[in-house]
Amino acid sequence: MRLGPLSILLSGLLLAACGDTTPQPQESLSRPVKLQAVSIGNSASLRHFPAVVEAGDKAVLAFRVSGQLKRVDARPGDLVTRGQILATLNEDELLLLVQQARANHDLARVKHQRNSELRKTNYVSEYDFDTSKAALKQARATLDKAKANLGYATLSAPYDGQISLSMVENFEYINAKQAVMHIQSANIINIVFELPSHLLPRVKESGSDLSPGFTLIP
């Protein structure tokens, strides 16, 4: 059986129609993202740094001479004023040293005065005169030192503050320069923290104020 040209054409159209499939849309490779604008420069920013609170002025107090502790007038937590007596050593031994130094000084002065009179008439040599003069100077220095040590038997507050620590007990023997108590200023505190180096220029340029905050731990 022969097919005509029209039949062949219709058959081709039918086959094309049957083989025609609608292309499926492909999934896009791009995905939506959430964008957030970040501003730099003059916008204010807040940063937190851990810090340590320290006393503005603090000192370790000690006697400049040795001796037995006679009285302690300040305890940890006490508020004191400049010049207030905090502790005192027994002054008996120091008073004896002052009396001995004064007696030696008086004797040296008498000897030198006598040699000064005798020197005018050449009854003493120049060497004896110079020796008595040097002895008088040494005796005067010893007396001045004994008087100063007597004054060092009293420990006073160097400035207004608060006693933070006491390390001695009454009637205890204290060596010279041994730590007796600590004092710190009551009105000035220092807040110490570490600032990254890359933030230092920003702080200097902007003149930002640093505000401390305290967290209370129950």
Give a written overview of the molecule.
The chain is α+β, with helices and mostly antiparallel strands and 218 residues long. Among the domains are: 65 residues, RNA polymerase II/Efflux pump adaptor protein, barrel-sandwich hybrid domain (OB fold (Dihydrolipoamide Acetyltransferase, E2P)); 62 residues, Helix hairpin bin (Helix Hairpins). The chain has four helices and ten strands. Helices cover 35% and strands 21% of the residues. A four-stranded antiparallel beta sheet has the order 2-9-7-4, with no helix packed on it.
CATH class of the domain at 54-89 and 156-184: Mainly Beta
Q: Given the C-alpha coordinates, what overall shape results?
A: elongated
CATH architecture of the domain at 54-89 and 156-184: Beta Barrel
Looking at the structure, the CATH topology of the domain at 54-89 and 156-184 is OB fold (Dihydrolipoamide Acetyltransferase, E2P)
* Overall radius of gyration: 47 Å
DSSP strand tally: 10
Rounded mean pLDDT score: 80
DSSP strand (E) fraction? Answer: 15-25%
Q: SSE string, helix = H, strand = E? A: HEEEEEHHEEEEEH
Helix amount: 25-40%
Number of helices: 4
Low-confidence stretches: 27-31, 33-41
Largest sheet: 4 strands, antiparallel
Provide a short characterization of the protein structure:
The protein is an alpha+beta fold and 218 residues long. The protein contains four helices and ten strands.
Secondary structure blueprint with pairings:
Elements: H1 5-19, E1 51-55, E2 58-62, E3 67-72, E4 79-80, E5 85-89, H2 92-120, H3 126-151, E6 154-156, E7 161-166, E8 173-174, E9 179-184, E10 189-193, H4 200-206
